[in-house]
Amino acid sequence: MQITRRLEFDAGHRIPDHKSQCRHLHGHRYALEITLSGEVIQLDGDAANGMVMDFAEVKALAKEHIVDRWDHAFLVFERDEPLVSFLRSMPDHKTVLMPCVPTAENLAQRAFQLLDEVYRDTYGNHLRLQRVRLYETPNCWADAVRPE
Ligand SMILES: Nc1nc2c(c(=O)[nH]1)N=C([C@H](O)[C@H](O)COP(=O)(O)OP(=O)(O)OP(=O)(O)O)CN2
Ligand SMILES: [Zn+2]
């Protein structure tokens, strides 16, 4: 069985080497879709009975590890020196340094890496993160999927 939880957040970014508009500072209303696989828990009387994982718990973990960190932050490639320097000049600015250029593909992959250890098999139901889909706009998204 697979379940998917969607969360949204706002963040700024730029793609420094982009040949067109995306090299300028701008922002998106990102949407993050987290797909988990596992067996449906069969535990009469348990709060998770009949679920792969409670959607509320999926959300709480995604907020803690991604959304609360990236929401209203500027996501910046750590080697984008002019921008890193500019953001450092702003006291208390919420900036997230990324080891990669913050494209939809790289952000989806980064989120997958960060979340893979988070969704653990607490009920012995083989819970696993299968896919992180990151929408940069309603028309553009990237999927980071667990390798076969
Ligand atoms: N493969 C990728 N291509 C692009 C990325 C990316 O992350 N991966 N990012 C951008 C820009 O950052 C921008 O967010 C996308 O802009 P755009 O192509 O204009 O997308 P829209 O949905 O706004 O386009 P409409 O034409 O208005 O639908 C660029 N490319
Ligand atoms: Zn963009």
TrEMBL record:
The reaction(s) this protein catalyses: 7,8-dihydroneopterin 3'-triphosphate + H2O = 6-carboxy-5,6,7,8-tetrahydropterin + triphosphate + acetaldehyde + 2 H(+)
The protein's enzyme class: lyase
GO MF terms held by the record: 6-carboxytetrahydropterin synthase activity; metal ion binding
Entry-linked InterPro entries: 6-PTP_synth/QueD, 6-PTP_synth/QueD_sf
Leader peptide range in chain numbering: none
Keyword Ubl conjugation: no
Cofactor(s) the protein needs: Zn(2+)
Pfam families on file: PTPS
Binding site for Zn(2+): H13, H26, H28
Keyword terms, alphabetized: Lyase, Metal-binding, Queuosine biosynthesis, Zinc
Domain of life: Bacteria
Single GO BP term: tRNA queuosine(34) biosynthetic process
Pathway linked to the protein: Purine metabolism; 7-cyano-7-deazaguanine biosynthesis
Catalytic activity, EC: 4.-.-.-
Active site: C22 (proton acceptor), H72 (charge relay system), E136 (charge relay system)
Cofactor binding summary note: Binds 1 zinc ion per subunit.
Family of the protein in this entry: Belongs to the PTPS family. QueD subfamily.
NCBIfam families xrefs: queuosine_QueD
Name recorded for this polypeptide: 6-carboxy-5,6,7,8-tetrahydropterin synthase
